[in-house]
Amino acid sequence: MQKMIRRSYLVDLSFLVVGFLVFNFATPIASAQNFFSKILGGQTTDQYPSVGIVGSVEGGGFCTGTLISPTDVLTAAHCAEVIESSDSGTFEVGGQVYLTSAIFIHPDFNSRTLDNDIAILRLSEPVIDIEPSPIFRGTPLVGDVLFIVGFGGGGTAEDGNDGTFGIQRVGMTTIDSVSDSIIEWLFDDPDEANTASGDSGGPGFLFVDEVESVASITSGGSVFDSTLGDVAFNTRVDAFASWIDETLLAVVPSGPTTDPGPTTDPDPTTDPDPTTDPDPTTDPDPTTDPDPEAEPDETPTDMVASCENYLSKPFPLLSFLIDLLTALLESLMGSGSPTAA
Fold it and tell me: Where is the Peptidase S1 domain (predicted)?
C-alpha cells in the first residue's frame, strides 16, 4: 500500500513539472494551447449585450461566450471542459448570472491541438431581455475585418496582457489566413487588436447585411502574453453550422443528466435472495483494488489549472521551485526505509 501511495504521488508531481515547463518554455506550436485567451489593444464597450462571461459555480468566471438562442451560449470547448458538471456552469449576461442545465462539447474536440474547439452551454432558464446573435454561415475571407469581443485582460502590444478580467472590450483585426476550420492573423500592427487570456470562447464578428454575425470563436495563439508577433487563431463558426443547428434542437432530460434517478434503483424488498449479495466488507482480491487514499492521476485540465495558479503569482518560478522541493522532501520522509517500499 505504501508503494502505491508514493507512486501515485510521484506521478502527480511529474505532471506538475511537465505542465510548468510546457507553459513557460514550450515551442510556438505547443504554446499555441494558450488556454483562456484577452482583447489586447481594444476599447471598453457595452455595445455587445449578447456577449457574456462563462464560468462555473466553483471557479467563477474565466472565459467568454455568446448567446445564440434564448437558452444557448456558444463558447470554446477548452472552456467548457473545465466546468465540473453539466449543471454547475454559469453565464453572466445583462447583469444576471444563469446556470447551465447541459453542456455540449464537440465530439471531435482535441484538447492538445485545440482542433474542433467549439461547445454550447444550455441554460436552465431562457434569457428573455437580450437578443441572441446570429451565427455566420458564409465563408470568411483573407482581408476581412474581424471585430473581436471578450472579457479578458487589456494591455498594450508591447507589454502584453495586464491580467485583468471582467471588462468587456472590443477590437479590430484583419484575417490573414483561412483554413478548413480555423482563421488566423499575425499580430504585427500595434494599431490593431489581439485576443488574450479570458477572451477564449468569445466571438469574432463579421458584418453581413449590416448585421454583426458570430463568425469565429477565440481559441488561442502562439505567444502566451499575446504581444506583437503572436499568431492568433479562432475556430470558424460556419464550419460547424450543422453541428450547432443539431445541438440547438437537442432535447435534454430534466434534472442532472448524470443522475439516472431513483426510479432506476431496484426495489430492495423484491430481492429474491438477499443472502446471495456479496459482503461489501470482503474483497476477493484486495491486491487488485486501488488504494482509496491514492489520488487519481492529474488530467490535462487539472494540470492547466495548477499552472495558471503558479503564473498568477508575483514570482511563479520561485513559488514553483519551493513547492517542488517541499513535495520531494515530503515524499522522501514518507517513504521510510528502502525496504519498506
Answer: 39-249
Q: Which domain holds residue 110?
A: 53-133+244-248
Q: Which of 212, 231, 248 is the last residue of a domain?
A: 248
Query: 62 and 118, same structural domain?
Result: yes
Domain count, the chain: 2
Residue where a domain terminates, one of 218, 233, 248: 248
Average pLDDT, the chain: 74
| Pairwise CA distance, residues 337 & 341, whole Å | 7
For 8-18, letters b (16+ CB in 10 Å) and e give: bbeebbebbee
pLDDT at residue 229 is higher than 50: yes
Q: How far apart are CA 109 and CA 175, in angstroms?
A: 23
For 201, which DSSP code?
Answer: T
> In 10 A of CB 148, how many CB atoms?
29
This prediction has a pTM of: 0.64
Decide if 33 is inside a domain. Answer: no
> Cβ distance 112 to 300 under 8 Å?
yes
Q: Where are the alpha helices (DSSP H) in the chain?
A: 2-25, 28-31, 77-80, 241-248, 300-311, 316-335
- Are the C-beta atoms of residues 217 and 202 closer than 8 Å to each other? yes
Higher pLDDT, 136 or 19: 136
Q: Is residue 152 part of a domain?
A: no
Q: Which residues contact 11 (CB under 8 A, 6 or more apart)?
A: 297, 298
